[in-house]
Design a protein that fits this description.
Layout lengths: L2 E5 L6 E8 L3 E6 L2 E6 L9 E5 L8 E4 L3 E4 L2 E4 L16 H11 L20 H18 L3 H8 L9 H16 L4 H11 L4 H11 L5 H8 L3 H8 L5 H13 L8
Parallel strand pairs: 4-5
Antiparallel strand pairs: 1-5, 2-3, 2-6, 3-4, 6-7, 7-8
């Protein structure tokens, strides 16, 4: 039986066209806005429609109305609605999160920004140039030159969503968790973070608005190794790169950084 497990609270009404398909997610676009139909293992989010018992391999059309939506003509209620508002962190220990990330992150992830010894995992000419570029981006962000840092990170790397874009998403989410006084910084970063990658743009929009996906929201609300594993399951390096950006925004202690 096909069932809605959650409907993203930032999905706007309209007719969406197929953008891309993967084993656990089907992405649809409308006027630059993304909506993703995903398997339960992916989890809820501001632009996710979590479906149980749905054959993702055959979906081709998404239509969203005010009180319902349809997939290939079959109608479903827009409920339960996912709450993507920022969590209220309890017991967030950045030092512990850093250590877990260094132990578990993919070798090609941006965790080298936390420990320079991991740079040996990126030894090709392209990878060495990427390391230098993102190290400079991180230094700029740390010293408050947000525009330069965001511009250097934007679009850097390979993959469906480049590592630099994932870093900036994490940084924006971290600014929202920092709270008071961060709104202007969010806009400074976002203004330089936008690029031509439609998937990155969709995630950056969510991050700018302070709208969280379930795995990251749960990790920030109550950190644990299992919850970090759920975040790291997002893409090959995307989850780890996002966490590095988030730590970069939240951490003010130089010893945490290489």
């Amino acid at each position: 039986m096909t069932k809605v497990l959650s409907f993203g609270d930032r999905i706007r009404p309209g007719d969406y066209t197929l953008h891309s398909r993967f084993s656990r997610a089907v992405n649809f676009m409308r006027q630059g806005r993304l909506a993703s139909v995903v398997a339960p293992a992916v989890g809820g989010g501001p632009i996710n429609i979590v479906m149980a018992g749905c054959d993702l391999s055959s979906l081709s059309r998404l239509e969203v109305a005010d009180g319902s939506f349809s997939l290939d003509g079959e109608s479903f209620p827009k409920s339960p609605l996912f709450d993507s508002r920022p969590p209220k962190p309890r017991g967030l220990d950045l030092r512990q999160l850093r250590e877990l990330l260094l132990r578990k992150a993919h070798p090609k992830s941006l965790a080298f920004l936390l420990d320079s010894r991991r740079c040996r995992n990126l030894a090709s000419g392209f990878e060495s140039a990427l390391v230098r570029r993102l190290q400079e981006a991180a230094r700029s962000l740390r010293r408050g030159d947000l525009e330069a840092g965001a511009k250097a990170a934007r679009g850097a790397g390979l993959g469906l969503t480049p590592s630099g874009d994932d870093l900036l998403c994490g940084y924006l989410w971290g600014l929202h968790l920092r709270g008071a006084g961060s709104a202007q910084d969010v806009e400074r970063v976002y203004a330089q973070a936008q690029g031509q990658n439609p998937l990155s743009s969709a995630f950056l929009d969510c991050a700018r608005e302070g709208r969280f996906f379930a795995p990251l929201k749960e990790l920030m609300a109550e950190p644990s190794e299992a919850r970090l594993d759920a975040v790291l399951a997002s893409g090959e390096t995307s989850g780890a790169d996002t966490c590095v950006g988030l730590i970069l925004a939240l951490d003010k202690e130089e010893p945490l950084w290489s």
